[in-house]
DNA sequence: CTCATTTTGTGCGATATATGAACAAATGTC
DNA sequence: GACATTTGTTCATATATCGCACAAAATGAG
């Protein structure tokens, strides 16, 4: 791509929008400038543009994003059939399991939730479409990484900050690679409180009719309610059934 | 605002992102150009910028958004405490009602879903955070419009395309204004298949401790399962309870 | 209240972008 | 397979943006 095929004003504006997610809902020009590393004058123009378009409001001191920015993310959810096709299956799965069910795809080193059906409140984590978790220690992340060629999975791990969220978190790259091979072989991944103490989950890949993994679905349950060892017998059949139904309807 | 305080390259890029939501997941440069009304060369530069930043991928023919664009919408969801505070209450409400519960805010003439808890699949509508419905014929929309000064509510109606979704849809502005007054008086809104045949819903405002309406929550149920007349006695107490709990925790 | 510090707003030259036409490549039609 | 159409890309140049430096305003400490 040539230098002149890049619209830096657009790129800078997107960076400004993302600056809001990292901290508070209200940002001053100077704060946004610090967060993005962009010049104050540039940030100011971007924020005024957002206000002019209705994506933000300005009270003379603070800028605040409006719900209109959801249109941007929703452009993906609405344009991609995946979340829309998966949602009803997820609702049914969640109802039958009596636990929360979610679907996600891989974006770099993270899993991104694209749909969720809730039965009971999750632990401390609040997950909505668009939420992100590190892939290496999430059940759906394990499944999605297992679907990659080994070299790519290893490359993702190398780019990941492998910090332990709980004493259970596996952080050794070789141990994780071995885990990916096991997951690939058995067709599912179980996480026993590696992300958060008290939370277990089990995930399977969602494949299209050509056998390509396009997403992952999971069921999460409190460890106090379902021990990790029971996850497989209680939920794997339900997950497999959903997986099978999806294989027939996905393009 | 001065002319030079507007970054048109940024505004055009945002328009390009939104073009995806309206149609398909894959757009060619020419298609995006038609949808946005922007010059092909300009659209191409925006799309190449998106690809360079990882918000889109280009296969030489089609551009496709990646899950990374969810970060943009998520900047709002993550930065705004509202969805995060409401979600657990919604989960509980949905579980106790045995029906779907949702929360939304007003954006112009539309309600935007900011959270949802599902128990059973909805009718034909698939709603996720970021989904939009016309405010005038949705229960949460009625509640949110009722909270506005009459002149503003009327102004919104004037800007709205008041088309009937079903034979039940109220489309007369005066009838709607009268309905808003009734809703304001009784503190809740009931919709009987005005949005979709077979779907009833009831909504109440979510107020902060200063009495300002900051969102609305609702319960939707199939008309075959719960007649409109029963909605109030079955679900209003649960909604009121959630409303009361939220009033204490909202800033 | 005053001074120091921080934050916001503005003018300007250097630099980057948008535009529309022209061309090349691909696609569709008969 | 030849023609007509659509699409993608490039280019020159008029125009708009960027980031700096400075001015103005707000904030805060003493």
From TrEMBL, chains A, B:
IclR-ED domain location: 68-251
A GO term, aspect molecular function: DNA binding
Pfam families for this protein: HTH_IclR, IclR_C
Keywords noted in UniProt: DNA-binding, Transcription, Transcription regulation
Domain of life of the native organism: Bacteria
Organism name: Rhizobium lusitanum
PANTHER family linked to this entry: HELIX-TURN-HELIX TRANSCRIPTIONAL REGULATOR, ICLR FAMILY, TRANSCRIPTIONAL REGULATOR
HTH iclR-type domain segment(s): 7-67
Biological processes per GO annotation: 3,4-dihydroxybenzoate metabolic process; negative regulation of DNA-templated transcription; positive regulation of DNA-templated transcription
UniProt name for this protein: IclR family pca regulon transcriptional regulator
């Amino acid at each position: 791509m040539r230098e002149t095929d890049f619209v830096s004003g657009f790129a800078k504006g997107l960076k400004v929008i993302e600056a809001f997610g990292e901290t508070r809902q209200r940002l001053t020009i100077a704060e946004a400038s610090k967060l993005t590393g962009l010049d104050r004058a540039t940030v100011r123009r971007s924020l005024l543009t957002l206000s002019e378009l209705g994506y933000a409001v300005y009270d003379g001191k603070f800028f605040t994003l409006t719900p209109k920015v959801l249109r941007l993310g929703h452009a993906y959810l609405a344009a991609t059939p995946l979340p829309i096709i998966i949602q009803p299956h997820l609702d049914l799965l969640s109802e039958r399991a009596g636990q929360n069910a979610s679907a996600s795809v891989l974006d770099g080193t993270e899993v991104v939730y694209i749909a969720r059906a809730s039965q009971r409140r999750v632990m401390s984590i609040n997950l909505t479409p668009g939420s992100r978790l590190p892939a290496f220690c999430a059940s759906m992340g394990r499944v999605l990484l297992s679907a990659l060629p080994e070299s790519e999975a290893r490359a993702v791990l190398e780019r990941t900050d492998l910090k332990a969220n709980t004493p259970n978190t596996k952080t050794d790259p070789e141990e994780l690679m071995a885990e990916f091979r096991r997951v690939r072989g058995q067709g599912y991944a179980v996480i026993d409180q590696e992300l958060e103490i008290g939370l277990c989950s089990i995930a399977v890949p969602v494949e299209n009719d050509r056998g390509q993994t396009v997403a992952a679905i999971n069921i999460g349950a409190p460890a106090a309610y379902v021990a990790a060892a029971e996850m497989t017998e209680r939920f794997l059949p339900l997950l497999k059934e959903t997986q099978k139904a999806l294989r027939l309807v996905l393009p």
